[in-house]
């Protein structure tokens, strides 16, 4: 709880009153709960590919595991473009149909793909390096519950890789893709597609 409060305080800045900060904290806790429940719905019985991203989007209605997302949703679109290109085309042609996204999320679950975040709470901008390190103990605790000896771990976004890879690779040697997979937005969609496809299909350079 202290780590989450620290990040919330950083996002909204110093100088806020204690009651105001407390209200924000309680709102944040409720958002974390909703996000966690949505994520758990699509947790595979056995995780074959564990994707680690930075944080849920600051506009939480665009969260990866929410079924009805009408804009952006870049990571979801990038992942399914590699794994299920025909389904992705259909999803877009049908105007991001919520029922179809539900089916795709179920397929990801069946195929053993699961996404977690370094930070459980949404953030408005990139998390500074020092703030990221606060989340590493919690991340390792999550991995203990999700990773077996055959799970492949893929870290999304270069800044997350820099913080997460050394520690996670030390514990799960040979299971972490030793490659910086860019986040599929801001012109990085093509690079994401190529690198993520290589990771999934060829499992290159495992740490």
Supply database-style keywords.
Uracil-DNA Glycosylase, subunit E, 3-stranded parallel β-sheet, 7% strand, 207 residues, 9 helices, mainly alpha
Structural class: mainly alpha
Helix content: 40-55%
Low-confidence stretches: 1-7
Oligomeric state of shown chains: single chain
Q: How many domains make up the coordinates?
A: 1
What is the name of the CATH architecture? 3-Layer(aba) Sandwich
The largest sheet, given as strand count, sense and whether it forms a barrel, is: 3 strands, parallel
The radius of gyration over CA amounts to 17 Å
Strand-and-helix sequence, N→C? HHEHHHEHHEHH
Percentage of β-strand residues: 5-15%
Morphology call? globular
- Annotation field: number of helices: 9
Q: What top-tier CATH class fits best?
A: Alpha Beta
Q: End-to-end distance, in Å?
A: 32 Å
CATH superfamily descriptor:
Uracil-DNA glycosylase-like domain
Query: In the CATH scheme, what's the topology name?
Result: Uracil-DNA Glycosylase, subunit E
Mean pLDDT across residues: 88
Architecture overview:
With 207 residues, the chain is mostly helical. The chain has a single domain, classed as Uracil-DNA Glycosylase, subunit E, CATH 3.40.470. 54% of the residues lie in helices and 7% in strands. The protein has helices at residues 2-12, 18-40, 74-83, 85-93, 98-110, 129-134, 136-146, 158-171, 189-202; strands at 49-53, 113-117, 152-155. The protein has a three-stranded parallel beta sheet. Helix 1 (2-12) crosses helix 2, helix 3 (74-83) crosses helix 4 and helix 3 (74-83) crosses helix 9 (189-202). The longest helix has 23 residues, at 18-40. The radius of gyration is 17 Å and the shape is globular. The chain starts with a helix and ends in a 5-residue tail after the last helix. The model is unreliable at 1-7 (pLDDT under 50).
């Amino acid at each position: 709880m202290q780590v989450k409060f620290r990040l919330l305080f950083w996002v909204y800045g110093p100088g806020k009153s204690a009651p105001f900060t407390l209200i924000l904290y309680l709102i944040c806790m409720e958002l974390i709960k909703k996000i966690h429940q949505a994520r758990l719905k699509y947790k595979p019985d056995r995780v074959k590919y564990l994707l680690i991203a930075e944080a849920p989007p600051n506009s939480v209605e665009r969260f990866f595991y929410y079924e009805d997302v009408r804009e952006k949703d870049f990571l979801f679109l990038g992942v399914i473009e590699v794994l299920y290109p025909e389904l992705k085309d259909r999803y877009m042609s049908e105007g991001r149909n919520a029922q179809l996204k539900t089916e795709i999320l179920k397929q990801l679950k069946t195929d053993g793909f699961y996404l977690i975040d370094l930070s459980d709470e949404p953030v408005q901008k990139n998390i500074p390096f020092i703030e990221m390190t606060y989340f590493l103990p919690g991340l390792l605790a999550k991995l203990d519950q999700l990773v077996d000896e055959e799970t492949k771990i893929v870290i999304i976004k270069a800044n997350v890789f820099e913080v997460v890879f050394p520690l996670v690779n030390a514990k799960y040697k040979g299971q972490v893709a030793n490659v910086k997979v860019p986040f599929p937005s801001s012109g990085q969609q093509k690079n994401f597609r190529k690198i993520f496809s290589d990771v999934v299909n060829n499992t290159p350079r495992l740490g």
